[in-house]
Amino acid sequence: MKLRFLDLRKQNLNIENKIINSIKKNISSSSFIGGSDLINFEKEFKNYLNIKYCLGLANGTDALEIAIKTLNLKKNSEVLVPANTWISTAEAVLNNNFKLKFVDVDETHNICIKDLKNKISKNTRAVIVVHLYGNPANLKKILALKRKHKFKIIEDCAQSHGAEYNGKKISTFGDIGTFSFFPSKNLGCYGDGGCVVTKNKKLYVNMKKIANHGGLKKNSHQILGRNSRLDNIQAGILRIKLKELDKWINYRNRQAKVYYENLSKIKSIKFVKRIKNSKSSFHLMVIKTKYRNELKKYLHKKNIETAIHYPKSLPETDLFKKNHLNYCKKMFSLKYSKEIISLPIGEHLTLRQIKYICKIIIKFFDV
Ligand SMILES: Cc1ncc(COP(=O)(O)O)c(C=O)c1O
């Protein structure tokens, strides 16, 4: 039997009837754009995170772009982004016509504090903190730098719904938190979706305008905006899934524990470091090994699917290498991209299956 990297069918099975009923309800009431599910989801998600404002959007990339836009940064501002993240984080900076600078990652696979200190300049106006793989970044140190240098913080939480730092949900520490509800995320809808959250009313109202053609009411266009909406059917699906989210995250943590307990004896394997007082949502279970390619092939032969997040760190990609590779050449993030492998994790796998995967990995390393 194939052990798949991702299989949403098991997750869907338990909630399918509720979801079908929710979709039917919205079809029969013709509530497609706007509507009670959207209003209620925004309310329920902000309550879940314990933050004041939530605005549903079309996807997580829009969420980042709109978050940057609303900060109203000066021309020629510099926005710092970790070198290992999904491309949206960096795209959003360039699509807003600001200067992008990459910062290395450390053993947490999140933004490296030492390199962040080096990269901050007098033009640095914002830092996008990505909580990659569901693993919270070192918010305490980043917030101390924010106080000193007065830059804005956007938390990219596309992979970290429900993750915590010091008992508080991530997304509530910076100026704006952004989320993706892409289907494979821990909280995913049945298509594209995203949102921004903030404690700042002014930022919230402005983002709402940007996402609605520049106004809060139909035919009111006060500023240059666009169309970015989370639709009512997706919001209805997310309301049902949000009720399950903590259970799913806890289960992922139990699976991760099995990986840690079984694989920590293997010297050639390194885990992603977690900072004190944080709870990962384990969107991804990433390990590092010099024998990554061989291990990946071996697991594939044994019918175990794996993935790589990401095969190239952003400064190495065609889009960025011309302007960025030079100053990024010695970054750990480039080295890590050759060593990381994402192991299967999620509701579709039993703890016994995770133990089995560990057994196969142990066999590969012959320990
Ligand atoms: C870290 C990160 N940021 C942003 C995004 C963009 O989200 P979306 O695909 O909903 O646009 C993703 C999606 O994979 C992501 O992983």
Task: Give a verbal description of the structure.
The chain is 42% helix and 14% strand. The protein is an alpha/beta fold and 367 residues long. The strands form three sheets. A seven-stranded mixed sheet has the order 1-9-8-5-4-2-3, sandwiched between helices. The chain has a three-stranded antiparallel sheet with strand order 7-6-11, with no helix packed on it. A three-stranded antiparallel sheet has the order 10-12-13, with no helix packed on it. The radius of gyration is 21 Å and the shape is globular. The mean pLDDT is 97. The structure holds pyridoxal-5'-phosphate (PLP). Pyridoxal-5'-phosphate binds at residues 59-61, 85-86, 88-89, 130, 156, 158-159, 180, 182, 192, 194.
